Amino acid sequence: MKRVKLCVLIIFMIISMSIYTLYTLGKRNIELYKYLDQIKQIYLADKNDQRIEPLLAELGGYWRDYYVNISFLIQSSQLGDISDSVARLYPLWQSDCDEFLSEIESIRYQTALLYDNEFPNLHSII
User: Fold this and answer.
1) I want to staple 92 with a disulfide (CB 3.0 to 4.6 A). Which of 5, 50, 82, 97 is the partner?
2) Which domain holds residue 34?
3) Is 12 among the domain residues?
4) Into how many domains does the chain fold?
């Protein structure tokens, strides 16, 4: 009977951590998407709008916080690719490069993929 209780406790802990991970990722991604959407909206209205510069700095600060809080849940190699993309945004904006918008979409896609990969699937468990 003790083994059954222990097994149930372990399964409960695994399920709890999965729910916490999904909640945290979802919450952080929504906030990240707000930054990305705001930057994209201003950029589409005027590529040289100076409001983009402080938003990119805020995005960089938010990403550092995101990275620290999520790195214990996700493999760091996946987060490293997104960090590279976030770091490229400011130089791309300064050089008026056409890849700026695609880099924003890349960040959005990669973070959505992180969330999707953490979602438990029955075929992954069995």
Assistant:
1) 97
2) 22-119
3) no
4) 1
